[in-house]
Specification:
By secondary structure, this protein is α/β, with parallel strands linked by helices. The chain folds into two domains: 85 residues, Leucine Dehydrogenase, chain A, domain 1 (Rossmann fold); 123 residues, Rossmann fold. The protein has ten helices and eleven strands. Strands 1-11-8-7-5-6 form a six-stranded parallel β-sheet. It has a three-stranded parallel β-sheet with strand order 3-2-4, with helices on both faces. Helix 2 packs across helix 10, helix 3 runs parallel beside helix 4 and helix 6 packs across helix 7. It is globular. It binds guanine. Guanine binds next to strand 4 and helix 6.
């Protein structure tokens, strides 16, 4: 039997990020020329997890490329919750810092929820503070939307992917992606289903999706037989398998059925960083009454 070959739309986050970051760079240049200070982002990393180190370096590099000043705090694995709270209190009070990002996950020895709750909501550019999470559910525009959900929203809207009224299935119910993304897509009037480790039959849901978003970090979890023809597939996973970066989706096989699909790397990843830059600039403008 001849295999059906389909050429899906590739949702190129790398390319879109480049365009969006050019615009942000121009905007910042304009503020500097008017005598304003640079926007500032504090980046806190605890320990030496190799993946987190790469993510943090990417974020710092992206800041530099558009004119955001980054302040990197690389702390020992054995730091106490109190020491971290003291640092956050200091950063909350600094005039030159518009955003505070604590790279997750934190070591088990520190209380992650307490740390995130200590960040001033107006500087919480990751959008993980309960106040910002609450604003997301309440559809209050002046909060911060977590970076990966915001990046996915921007990517779909750029490529004209209508969300309103669609059946969206999210695989993964984590606090960084799945949960806030479900709220954002409800905001956009999608019908949202969230699958997680206790879901009895994930395939039953994924096969019924108009838009399928996987955010589990399990390499190639989403196989061809779990996806229906004409689905929009968004892959949030980034895993290393035999030295190669792969997503949650078996890209080569699933792309034959997809209407549109994100590559890994070059899809959602760069959009997450771009959303962080946008959130930092949003804070900067608000704090400088711009
Ligand atoms: N770890 C994985 N994704 C993220 C993110 O978007 N922000 C932070 N702070 N940590 C993460």
């Amino acid at each position: 039997m001849e295999e059906k070959m389909n050429s899906p739309l590739i949702l190129n986050g790398k390319e879109l990020s480049k365009k969006l970051r050019e615009k942000l760079k121009e905007e910042i240049k304009d503020f500097l020329s008017k005598g304003y200070r640079k926007p500032g982002l504090a980046v806190i990393l605890v320990g030496n997890d190799p993946a987190s180190l790469i993510y943090v370096k990417n974020k710092i590099k992206a800041c530099k490329s558009i004119g955001i000043e980054s302040f990197f705090f690389h702390l020992e694995e054995n730091i106490t919750t109190q020491e971290l709270l003291d640092l956050i209190a200091e950063l909350n009070n600094r005039e030159d810092i518009d955003g505070i990002l604590v790279q997750l996950p934190l070591p088990k020895s520190v209380n992650q929820k307490e740390i995130i709750s200590a960040i001033l909501p107006s500087k919480d550019v990751d959008g993980f503070h309960p106040e910002n999470m609450g604003k997301l559910i309440a559809q209050i525009e002046d909060g911060f939307i977590p970076c990966t959900p915001l990046g996915i929203d921007l990517l779909m809207s750029h490529y004209g992917i209508e969300v309103k009224g669609k059946d969206v299935v999210i695989v993964g119910a984590g606090f960084i992606v799945g949960r806030p993304l479900s709220s954002l897509l409800l905001w956009r009037n999608a019908t949202v289903t969230v699958c997680h480790i206790y879901t009895k039959d994930i395939s039953k849901f994924t096969r019924s999706a108009d838009i399928l978003i996987s955010a589990t970090g399990i390499p190639h979890l989403i196989k061809e037989d779990m996806v229906s023809e004409g689905t929009v597939v968004i892959d949030v996973g980034i895993s290393k398998v035999e030295g190669k970066i792969v997503g949650d989706v078996d890209f080569e096989k699933v792309k034959r059925k997809a209407l549109a699909i994100t590559p890994v790397p070059g899809g959602v990843g760069p959009m997450t960083v771009t959303a962080l830059l946008m959130n930092t600039l949003k804070s900067y403008k608000k704090r400088n009454l711009l």
